[in-house]
From TrEMBL:
It comes from Melastoma candidum. This is Uncharacterized protein. It comes from the Eukaryota.
Length: 182
């Protein structure tokens, strides 16, 4: 009986480029004090949006479903349903847009979230990688009142949470632009 040759799993050049770009984006991950302040501001603005929202009769779980896409499958589904180029705001647009996607950088196995950076880039949705010594997935879960979450998408609904996140994204983009000038 001859020896059986095992097929080695080798990355294609496209996969290598994608993994390198994902690794470079992960170097820009939010961690430490910045992570704590980001999560605290999101949680406080979530409470503020919940109290000021007209749908106070809704159960909390349903209200959170309207504000967040929690989990890789739901974030992927929401991103895939978004049009690649957002049309001008029309009253008949039934697609829910994501304002940003938060990804836990401690995801294992990595292939679970490998498709999200490219999908988010094609829909022009910013990604924020979350890295924490105590597991970024558990820190992300705190936002949506679940134990752990690998991915959390924040839906654009025009409330206090969205305004806060818009300020965070603009300050982050200004910092990245300033770093490019140096």
């Amino acid at each position: 009986m001859g020896r059986r040759k095992s097929k080695g799993l080798r990355a294609t050049p496209g996969e290598t480029a994608r993994s390198q770009s994902a690794a470079s984006h992960e170097q820009e991950a939010v961690e430490g004090d910045r992570l704590s302040s980001l999560l605290e501001s999101i949680q406080s603005k979530t409470k503020e949006a919940r109290s000021s929202d007209g749908d106070k009769a809704l159960p909390e779980k349903i209200w959170f479903k309207r504000q967040f896409a929690v989990g890789v499958n739901e974030v992927t589904r929401t991103l895939e349903r978004m049009p690649p180029d957002p049309p001008p705001s029309e009253g008949g647009n039934t697609h829910q847009r994501l304002q940003a996607v938060l990804l836990a950088s401690d995801c294992d196995p990595r292939w679970l979230i490998r498709h999200l950076p490219g999908l988010a880039r094609s829909r022009k949705v910013p990604l924020i990688y979350v890295r924490d010594k105590k597991h970024g997935s558990s820190r992300l879960g705190q936002i949506a009142n679940v134990r752990t979450a690998i991915a959390v998408g924040i839906k654009a609904r025009g409330n206090a949470l969205n305004r806060c996140l818009e300020e965070i994204l603009h300050s982050r983009m200004d910092k990245l632009d300033a770093d490019d000038l140096i």
